[in-house]
Design goal:
The chain has 10 helices and 4 strands. About 45% of the residues lie in helices and about 5% in strands. Helix 3 crosses helix 7, helix 3 crosses helix 9 and helix 7 crosses helix 9. Bound molecules: zinc ion (ZN).
């Protein structure tokens, strides 16, 4: 009888534990978690942490300086609500030298943005977040972030760093082109303005979108076969690329939801797959003694 009671109590406690793990409500936002809840969050997220990276820069004459921050954070939080993981607080130390001539730009040095990102990843790992996914909101960061990811191979790491790369499905591309009214863009354009009209319509000054030119000025067209740091300024001195006089919140919702659904897929896969860790560890081992790498 005593044994039966013990088994019964054990089964009950398992049930409660199972239910607790599945149904416990823990916030996704890193900064909103208490320290005891942070421990549960690491477990519930399987160590997956999203790191949305934005920037502070002009976005044409009509969008807020923090546009990229709002965009990547909205995609990250939308995904985290669908597939639990932790979302790192507002982060805006990135590469934005090309907009230093515009009011409001905060362009930290290359050394600093590198160190802040490296130490943020290292500290996340020290706190149990072993799978970090960068969700980038700023085009000027892309080359920096890829170089940063590649540089992680220089010395062994006990975590994986993944740079989220959304790609429009043919179905989404079709829907986007049916909603789009312009065919140029790249910065503070119809797409970004639509996203902001979906995310924070109160911050969009649509009526100002036509007060500056977002046309490609092609001021270096006479010098072909080259890449130079001034290329963006040469083409888009107003730090505005495209025509945002037309935009729609529906288009913005479509872009955000499409990106978020791909991010959900990535989070789910990383929670269950250790493929990257395995390959990294094998690589680090071989790198320490390359003469014994199988030939
Ligand atoms: Zn932007």
């Amino acid at each position: 009888m005593k044994n039966l009671l013990a088994v019964f109590l054990l089964l009950c406690s398992w049930g409660v534990m199972g239910q607790t793990l599945r149904e416990i409500k823990i916030n996704c936002s890193y900064e909103e978690l208490t320290a005891p809840d942070f421990i549960k969050a690491v477990e519930k997220s399987s160590g997956v942490c999203l790191l949305p990276i934005g920037i502070l820069e002009k976005h044409g004459p009509h969008l807020p300086l923090g546009t990229d921050i709002y965009e990547c954070r909205k995609i990250a939080t939308t995904a985290a609500e669908q597939e639990y993981c932790v979302v790192f607080p507002t982060y805006y130390t990135g590469q934005i030298n090309e907009a230093r001539h515009q009011p409001g730009t905060i362009a930290y040095s290359s050394e600093l943005i590198w160190k802040v990102l490296q130490e943020t990843c290292d500290e996340l790992s020290r706190n149990g977040m072993k799978k970090i996914i960068i969700v980038n909101g700023h085009g000027g960061n892309n080359d920096f972030l890829k170089f940063f990811c590649m540089s992680q191979l220089h010395s062994p790491k006990d975590y994986v760093l993944v740079f989220f790369q959304p790609s429009e499905s043919p179905e989404t591309s079709k829907k986007i082109s049916s909603l789009r009214q312009t065919d140029t863009g790249g910065h503070a354009d119809e797409m970004e303005t639509s996203m902001m009209r979906f995310i924070r319509p109160d911050l969009v000054k649509t009526e100002r979108a036509g007060t500056q030119s977002g046309k490609n000025q092609e001021r270096l067209a006479e010098i072909p076969f080259q890449y130079t740091g001034i290329w963006w300024y040469a083409n888009y001195p107003n730090h505005y690329a495209g025509d945002a006089t037309k935009s729609s919140p529906e288009l913005g919702r479509l872009i955000v939801e499409s990106d978020a659904s791909q991010l959900v897929q990535l989070i789910k896969i990383l929670k269950h797959s250790n493929k990257i860790e395995e390959l990294q560890n094998r690589f680090y081992k071989e790198s320490a003694d390359p003469l014994h790498t199988g030939q």
